[in-house]
């Protein structure tokens, strides 16, 4: 008997499936895996990311300490931050333009413009002074084809290359974390046994598990970040960058802690497209309830 060949789903159905992979956890897999399946998948994934996720992308730059005054009053010593939000795409849909957030006080804009120029001209691979946020994920990786218009205070970059670098690191961090979790099965089983024997209460068990998982994820994200920096140096000048000899452990620790804090803060953000999705789900539930009521009414008749 001839072996039955699996039935291939039509591209239209696959496209519908891809369009429903819109959770934060799905984006890295979409970009790093699904996008490379075929030309049709690439087109759909890029369309999804361009329409849904690029508008939720921000570039943040730390521009050093600022102690200037306002209206004759001395301001407290603060770190000057500049956040750029997605504004529009170029005609060829390759270059994304980001504009300075309107929250910057007008009197600080001249200083921001000047310091941004210096920042862009002196990007530090090993100790970046910027962060990239795409929805709820935050990293401090490269911004490919970065250019800056000082007069307009606008930042431009190749958004596809930005997503490739960003989600390449994010996917690696998640893969390392999953591998690390697989190796913690014995530890988690021991916690279960201690709970069963009454040696530890539920609250202590949960706290210990969360602490262990959190510390493991931080280590994995550190390793993914180091791998990205090593790749950047190798691509730049062929250097084999070693974090133990060439890196600065204090700066690395500060950067990782800041990224972790930014990521935790980003987790609480609510985006308008998610609110719309919730409304659609509510409408679907209402429609189902109405259909059920109509069926029951028909049965009664």
TrEMBL record:
This is Uncharacterized protein. The lineage of its organism: Eukaryota, Fungi, Dikarya, Ascomycota, Pezizomycotina. Residues 268-301 are annotated as: Disordered. InterPro entries: F-box-like_dom_sf. It comes from Hyaloscypha variabilis (strain UAMH 11265 / GT02V1 / F) (Meliniomyces variabilis). Residues 271-301 have a biased composition (Acidic residues). CDD domains: F-box_SF.
